[in-house]
UniProtKB/TrEMBL annotation:
<dbReference type="GO" id="GO:0006606">
    <property type="term" value="P:protein import into nucleus"/>
</dbReference>
<keyword id="KW-0175">Coiled coil</keyword>
<keyword id="KW-0812">Transmembrane</keyword>
<dbReference type="GO" id="GO:0005737">
    <property type="term" value="C:cytoplasm"/>
</dbReference>
<dbReference type="InterPro" id="IPR052304">
    <property type="entry name" value="PTTG1IP"/>
</dbReference>
<dbReference type="GO" id="GO:0005634">
    <property type="term" value="C:nucleus"/>
</dbReference>
<feature type="coiled-coil region">
    <location>
        <begin position="86"/>
        <end position="122"/>
    </location>
</feature>
<feature type="transmembrane region" description="Helical">
    <location>
        <begin position="59"/>
        <end position="84"/>
    </location>
</feature>
<keyword id="KW-0472">Membrane</keyword>
<keyword id="KW-1133">Transmembrane helix</keyword>
<protein>
    <submittedName>
        <fullName>PTTG protein</fullName>
    </submittedName>
</protein>
Length: 145
């Protein structure tokens, strides 16, 4: 079917998706579907057109390689950046957790210190009014004076 469009024009040939136009001898041939690229014995890549008349296979291959390379570089950069951010956020979380633990321990120590100071103050008041029990004999009877 494609050979019927030979010696016409590239646009007429490429209206059929299964056709390949070769500028070397202005022929329309069936696209070799068994191979991805047309062999050079059929038509050189710089003179072969498929899909659009204004772009040849060499330019198409180069453009596709550049786009694929850019996509790979973009994916690699994104993966590296995400891994770096995760590692950085983990270390930041660890630092924050350690800071909170230190603060918690400081508050606990301050609380114990205040408790001890209150106990001393209460003991002084009990001693002043004679309410402090003798530490030698905690079971002694309380006597009124």
């Amino acid at each position: 079917a494609c050979s019927a469009f030979s010696q016409t024009s590239c646009d007429e040939c490429l209206k059929n998706v299964s056709c390949l136009w070769c500028y070397t001898n202005n022929t329309c041939i069936d696209y070799p579907v068994r191979s991805i690229l047309p062999p050079s014995s059929l038509c050189s890549l710089s003179n072969a057109r498929w899909g659009l008349c204004w772009i040849n296979f060499e330019a198409l291959i180069i453009a596709m390689a550049v786009v694929a390379g850019l996509i790979l570089v973009f994916i690699t950069v994104c993966c590296c950046y995400c891994c770096y951010c995760r590692r950085r956020s983990r270390s930041r979380l660890d630092e924050e957790e350690e800071h909170l633990a230190r603060k918690r321990e400081e508050r606990r120590l301050q609380s114990l210190q205040r408790k001890h100071e209150r106990k001393l103050k209460h003991d002084e008041i009990r001693k002043k009014y004679g309410l402090l029990q003798d530490s030698d004999n905690p079971y002694s009877r309380f006597e009124n004076e």
